[in-house]
Amino acid sequence: MSPVGAAQTIEASKVTSIKSLAESPALNSVPTAYNFNINPNEEADPNDPEFAIPIVDMSLLTSGSHVQWSKIIHDLVKICQELGFFIAINHGVPESLMKAMIDACHGFFSLPDEEKQEFKSGDDVLEMLSMGPAIIWHWTNSFCGGTSSSEVSMEFSKRSREVALEKTRAISESLGLEPNYIQMLAANYYPPCPQPEHAIGIPHHTDHGLVTLLIQNKMNGLQVEHNGKWLTVDGPANGFFVNLADQMQILTNGKYKSVMHRATVNNKATRISVAIPHGPSVETIVAPAPELLEKKGQAPKYLAMNYKEIYNFNKVRKTT
Ligand SMILES: O=C(O)CCC(=O)C(=O)O
Ligand SMILES: [Fe+2]
Questions:
Q1: pTM for this predicted structure
Q2: ipTM, 2 dp
Q3: pLDDT tens track for 204-247
Q4: Which protein residue's CA is at the shortest distance from atom 3 of ligand 1?
Q5: Which is the closest atom of ligand 1 to the Cα of 201?
Q6: SS3 letters for 154-204?
Q7: Ligand 1: residues whose CB is within 6 Å?
């Protein structure tokens, strides 16, 4: 393999999209501007039971016995405290709809760059992603309607919201709160990269809302941080990846963990993921739940903040 940045025939400043860069025949190494070194010593051993990814059978929450329901709620406490991440299966969203969503994204990302640009939104996400020194090996887009993808994405969004609601209800119950206490969609495109160990799709970050649901095509790439190691998420194709986010950590006064995660790239095939964040509106002030503080006799560890303040606070935290 050529050293990183050897393909200086390709100037990062002239790159119009990561897709066109990745498709360029001259590309045999990562241009310097995109360089990010993955430390192999920080990768978790997938065979180590310490890094087993929890799987939650959502059907048992609605149609299981009371004993099964209680066991899941009990398991969720441990999962949300220790890892802040799990894979939800039997969630009721048809596999065909999940696949249609990924196919719709594929179709969208195959449009010429100029056409894609017209639908470009989600600048705040991009701003967040461009933190740090690395330029990212990835393109993101939020679907707002107007594309052929919008019908599928609306249906998918609606159905995945139902899953999210069910899940946040269960998480609320695992905290001993009322089920309804805790009450958009971004597509990510990661083309193959000639030197995946020298690039990053999305650098490490936590998400801002309560929970994020994520689906992907058949390519893995998401890594979650656990005990100082990066664990590659691998799981059933029809599962939803569920990660707890910042507002959940604040709401639970730090009991539940907003999981640090990142997206790596590969040199084999394009990876597409769709992230569906869930949380209250941006104006909502989020603070540790008084009921929980009272129950535990705890002082609040977080100030009451709205989304924007959390966002700005995180920008400082994550870039220093
Ligand atoms: O593509 C992935 O696996 C991760 C995406 C992500 O973390 C995000 O969109 O916030
Ligand atoms: Fe994320």
A1: 0.82
A2: 0.99
A3: 999 988 999 999 999 999 999 999 999 999 989 899 999 999 99
A4: 222
A5: 1
A6: HHHHHHHHHHHHHHHHHHHHHCCCCCCCCCCCEEEEECCCCCHHHCCCEEE
A7: 186, 188, 202, 207, 214, 221-222, 261, 263, 273, 275
